[in-house]
Amino acid sequence: MEYYGRGNKDGRLELNEYQPDWEFEHRYLGAFHELKPDEEGRVKMRQLNHKLRNKDLGLPEHIRDDMLRRADMNHDGYLDFHEFLRLIELVDSHAHLDRFHKAVALASYVVVPESERPQFVESELRHYNCCPPPLFMILISLTELALSLYTHFTLEGGMTMAGGVDRNGPLIYSPFRRKEAWRLLTYMLIHAGWTHLIVNLAVQFILGIPLELVHKYWRVAIVYLLGVVAGSLGTSVTDPKIFIVGASGGVYALIAAHLASIVINWKEMEYNWIRLVFWILLVGADVGVAVYYKHFYDGPNPPLVGYTAHFCGAVCGFLMGVVCLRNLHKLKWEQILWWICLAVTILLFAFAVFWNIFWPGFPPQKV
């Protein structure tokens, strides 16, 4: 009988090594007693079929049916309590989790390959108590929301669904105040309207929190914040006279980091080609729209969207995703890719920084 998700390197666990936790034992002890084990705590296999089909043991139907198919895996003619528990976990890898941990597991599955889920649940989530919780995405999102509310109540006319930015504010990226280097990062806290804010917050919660649950807050923080800085640096190179607000550079970094997670866990990730094509189309569509409005559109009122920040944030997110995010099974070609991505990231940031220092074509500075 084999159990996948604990034990030695290949995931197998011998019967004498199986040690379920107390809560899991207590939850299913009554169900096992309903099977009327003998004095040695065992149930004869020939009686199990009849009892499972005719007694209400409080077991989900899918677990009961699978148990009947798999019960006699060790061919000894008996089922003891630990075999019973192990069989439940084999049929349902979530059986030993309470409702909170099941919810966390389902959220993390957005970014965890199917083949790695039993091991991830066992090693990462079984005793996870939300201390610390995925704080980075929550704190960043709450800060962005708080500053938007502050802007709404202090700016004349307030924030609208598609506008409401104080260009003289101390946080937005201004091409006329490039020496105030903090603006390269803090522009992410200000948004050009409620729609802009809501979309970014939605992505941060839907994709950022699962990434943080799996890869830890500090890895996601590095990817997100560098994506924001890459967005402002890239915009200063290609569009040196425009203002920037919003966390879209960081949001696109999260999206591309998920793409990086797919690449570095390619063999373990189910639906890998579908996921890859989806994210490439998403980023590609944004880039295509940016190219159209920048080079081909000659109509009135072009959209004031920082497409360069989106693109640069996505590029940085992919590169730093490969470098920072956890690789569940690192292969030789992935180690080479890691070094390539790190080198390219350093070179791109160095180029953008030196461009900002030495290029003479920036607007006159107010400070």
Task: Give a quick precis of the structure.
Helices cover 59% and strands 2% of the residues. It has 367 residues and is mainly α.
**DSSP strand count:** 2
- What is the number of helical segments per DSSP (H or I, 4+ residues)? 14
Largest sheet: 2 strands, antiparallel
Order of helices and strands: HEHHEHHHHHHHHHHH
**Span of the ends, CA to CA:** 73 Å
By helix and strand content, what is the structural category? mainly alpha
Radius of gyration: 27 Å
Strand fraction? under 5%
Low-pLDDT segments, ≥5 res: 1-20
Inertia-based shape: elongated
Looking across the biggest beta sheet, what order are the strands in?
1-2
Helix fraction by DSSP (H/I, runs of at least 4): 55-70%
Query: What is the mean pLDDT?
Result: 75
Considering the chains and any ligands shown, give keywords for the structure.
367 residues; mainly alpha; two-stranded antiparallel sheet; 14 helices; 59% helix; disordered N terminus
Write the layout of secondary structure elements.
Layout: H1 22-33, E1 42-44, H2 45-54, H3 61-70, E2 78-80, H4 81-91, H5 99-108, H6 117-125, H7 135-154, H8 183-186, H9 194-215, H10 217-238, H11 248-264, H12 272-295, H13 307-324, H14 332-358
Antiparallel strand pairs: 1-2
Helix pairs in contact: 7-9, 9-10, 9-11, 10-11, 10-13, 10-14, 11-12, 11-13, 12-13, 13-14
Can you walk through the features of this model?
This protein is mainly alpha-helical and 367 residues long. 59% of the residues lie in helices and 2% in strands. The chain is built from 14 helices and two strands; from the N terminus they run H-E-H-H-E-H-H-H-H-H-H-H-H-H-H-H. The chain has helices spanning 22-33, 45-54, 61-70, 81-91, 99-108, 117-125, 135-154, 183-186, 194-215, 217-238, 248-264, 272-295, 307-324, 332-358, and strands at residues 42-44, 78-80. Strands 1-2 form a two-stranded antiparallel ribbon. It is elongated and about 90 Å long.
